[in-house]
Structure formats: structure tokens, C-alpha cells
Specification:
It comes from Duganella dendranthematis. Pfam families: Oxidored_FMN. This is Alkene reductase. It is globular and about 55 Å long. It is built from 11 helices and 14 strands. The longest helix has 20 residues. It has a single domain, classed as TIM Barrel (Alpha-Beta Barrel), CATH 3.20.20.70. Helix content is 33%, strand content 16%. The chain has an 8-stranded parallel beta barrel with strand order 3-4-5-10-11-12-13-14, surrounded by 5 helices. A two-stranded antiparallel sheet has the order 1-2. It has 356 residues and is α/β, with parallel strands linked by helices. The structure holds flavin mononucleotide (FMN).
């Protein structure tokens, strides 16, 4: 008896299986952040996922962090996404948009010469991906308190546009060291105002942003992704357990559609700690197999499971699980690429594999 292939309620929706497609940046959009026909096909091919979470999408131009990533700011971007949501819905699927503001994980070459923004002027180590290849990160500019309110309002406006573009909901990217986690974490936030200092203040940006998104979409269409102790993009925190405990306690009353927790290599049992604190629909992702997902659900550790690379390489992942079929292996060399079909829409489904 399979647990992954049974329906479950997520916010406003009853989804037909518990296999959620993880948000995955694929860098196939135009220089203007507009998705094209390949992206329509890519998501439509994966419409049998219980729920698709889109790749990270910048709510405003200053939030862009990688070359060829898409936005949801201009009318052209909205119209292009509408084709994606129409195609997913035509095949019976559901899709949320992931809102991703990269903050300091960017570069002037991606921002028409502007300096990336962050809670504090602390540069991350490493390099940005630009059209001129990889270049060292720069020292970001600290947002003023008034500007922080403006950025939060950009998430609100982007949420309205995502709903207008036909998305079934939105996910705040609070993971992987991007802007919300830069505010949350003590190593990247040395602010003196109400958005820095105490854990209450550092969590405020994420909580206020969620409230702004909820104001447009309703709490039952808003999710949050976090990745405690992932330590990616130079994120550090003096006391991550206290930080995440506080954050998730504050989420409890909001009635979010879900909390999506992806753990990478930490020894701490964050799932055991955060799930009871949250009290709502809990999604576990990262490094799962069919077997481990079945076990997670059988043990009642989550309501649904999230798959990244496996969905990237297997457009019909639920059907493959149903049949116990072999899986296509993901090709890392085409994860991020200029707008090409290769490694994007050419992974075969079972029926086409048989024909081939
Ligand atoms: C190509 C690729 C792009 C990704 N881009 C994003 C992204 O835009 N936003 C995000 O939250 N996570 C992103 N991730 C992380 C995935 O959402 C997921 O957490 C991770 O792949 C672990 O799940 P998996 O082991 O099932 O692949 C990306 C992962 C991959 C493989």
C-alpha cells in the first residue's frame, strides 16, 4: 500500500498524490526574465505532480540573482507565465510560484549596474553567475528601514501578479541564503532597527513578507520553504536552533498552506523539533527516494514529500512510482543552461521511452 500516491489537503486544495515537485532554477528565461515555450512544455510535462513549485522567480528586478532567471514584475513576464499555468491546468495539475529575492547573492552585471541589496553591507564569499561567466560577489548595500518596507511591498505586488498569471498559490523562498534568510541569520544581519539584533527582530522580515503575501493570496495559498543549517551562500547563525524555533512558533497562527523544510547535512533533528511547533501541513524534502518518502509518510512525519532532481529527470515520477519503474538519471551539465531543450524537456516519460 503506497502512501505517496494517496490524496492530501494542502491549504485550499486537495492534491491527488503526496509527491511535490521542488522549486528548481533552470535558467532558461530571456535576458528580460520572460519564460518561453520550452518552459510551458517543461511544467506541463510534470503536471501529474501532486503540486508543482516553480523555480525561484524574482519579485522585482533587484531580486534577480542568476543569469536567465525569470521575473514576475512586468506585464510581459505575467503574460508568459499565464501560458505556463494554463498548460499545467489543462493537464489537471496545480502550480505555486516560488518568490525568490536573492539579496546579496547577485551582482551589478545582473542588475543593470545597481549594487545588490541586503540587510547589512556584508559580502558573501563566492561568485555570481552572469552572462559574462562567474564573477566575484560584491559588498552589498544595506537597505534603509523605509526601503525594507518597500521590498516587502514588492513581494505583495508580485503575489498579486502571480495570482493574476493563474498560479494556484505562492511560496516564499526562505531557504538557501537568499534575502529572507539573510535577514533571519545573525551572521548576515547587523542591523540596529526593528529588522535586526534580537531573534524577534531578525525574523520580522520573513514574517512581515508572509503577511504581505497572505494579504493578496489568502493564507491557504501561501507556503514557506526553509533550510536550517544549510550554510549555503555564506549563511551563518550564532544559534540556529533558537532562531528556527522562534520563527516557526510565530508561523503557527498564520494558517499557511504548508511549511516546506529541506535539510542538508545537519545533525539536528529539525523535523522532530519544528513539525509540532508549526502544527500545520508539513512538507519534507531533500535527498528522498521512493522508499524513504514512503517511510516518512508511514511514520506520520510529514503530510507530503518533495522531490527535486528526480522530478527534473522524470516528468512522470508518480506513474513511475506506481509501476515501480526505473528512473531516468539527472544530467547535471544541463541543470542550468541557455534556452535550450536539451536536459530540459527531452527526459522521456515511460510511454515515450517504450516507443523510443
Ligand atoms: C537544478 C536545481 C535548481 C534548484 N533551484 C532551486 C530554487 O530555485 N529554489 C529552491 O528553493 N531550491 C532550489 N533547488 C533545491 C531543490 O528545491 C531541492 O531542495 C533540492 O534539490 C533537494 O531535493 P532533491 O534531493 O530531491 O533534489 C534546486 C535544485 C536543483 C537540483
Amino acid at each position: 500500500m503506497s502512501n505517496t500516491l494517496t490524496p492530501v489537503r494542502i491549504g485550499r486544495y486537495t492534491i491527488p498524490n503526496r509527491l511535490v515537485m521542488a522549486p528548481m532554477t533552470r535558467s532558461r528565461a530571456s535576458d528580460d526574465g520572460v519564460v518561453g515555450d520550452l518552459t510551458v512544455t517543461y511544467y506541463a510535462q510534470r503536471a501529474t505532480a501532486g503540486l508543482i513549485i516553480s523555480e525561484g522567480v524574482f519579485p522585482s528586478a533587484l531580486g534577480k540573482g542568476y543569469v536567465h532567471t525569470p521575473g514576475i514584475e512586468t506585464a510581459e513576464q505575467v503574460a508568459a507565465w499565464k501560458k505556463v499555468t494554463d498548460a499545467v491546468h489543462a493537464r489537471g495539475g496545480r502550480i505555486f510560484m516560488q518568490m525568490m529575492h536573492s539579496g546579496r547573492i547577485s551582482h551589478p552585471a545582473l542588475l543593470n549596474g545597481a549594487t545588490p541589496v541586503a540587510p547589512s553591507a556584508i559580502p558573501p564569499a563566492g561568485q555570481a553567475w552572469t552572462s559574462a561567466g562567474q564573477v566575484d560577489f560584491v559588498t552589498p548595500r544595506a537597505l534603509s528601514t523605509e526601503e525594507v518596507a518597500g521590498v516587502i511591498d514588492e513581494y505583495r505586488q508580485a503575489t498579486r501578479r502571480a495570482i493574476e498569471a493563474g498560479f494556484d498559490g505562492v511560496e516564499l523562498h526562505g531557504a538557501s541564503g537568499y534575502l529572507p534568510e539573510q535577514f533571519l541569520s545573525s551572521g548576515s544581519n547587523q542591523r540596529q532597527d526593528q529588522y535586526g539584533g534580537s531573534v524577534e527582530n531578525r525574523a520580522r522580515f520573513m514574517l512581515d513578507t508572509l503577511d504581505a503575501m497572505i494579504a493578496e493570496a489568502g493564507a491557504d495559498r501561501v507556503g514557506l520553504k526553509i533550510s536550517p543549517e544549510m550554510n549555503y551562500n555564506s549563511i551563518t547563525d550564532a544559534d540556529p536552533q533558537q532562531t528556527y524555533r522562534h520563527l516557526v512558533e510565530q508561523l503557527r497562527g498564520k494558517g499557511l498552506a504548508y511549511l516546506h523544510v529541506a535539510l542538508f547535512g545537519t545533525q539536528t533533528d529539525y523535523h522532530g523539533m519544528l513539525r509540532p511547533l508549526f502544527g500545520g501541513t508539513y512538507l519534507i524534502g531533500s535527498g528522498l527516494t521512493q522508499q524513504s518518502a514512503e517511510a516518512i509518510l508511514a511514520e506520520g512525519k510529514a503530510e507530503a514529500t518533495v522531490f527535486g532532481a528526480a522530478f527534473l529527470a522524470n516528468p512522470d515520477l508518480p506513474e513511475r512510482f506506481r509501476q515501480d519503474a526505473a528512473l531516468n538519471q539527472p544530467d547535471r551539465s544541463t541543470f542550468f543552461a541557455p534556452p535550450t531543450a536539451q536536459g530540459y524537456i527531452d527526459y522521456p516519460a515511460l510511454d515515450t521511452a517504450e516507443v523510443a
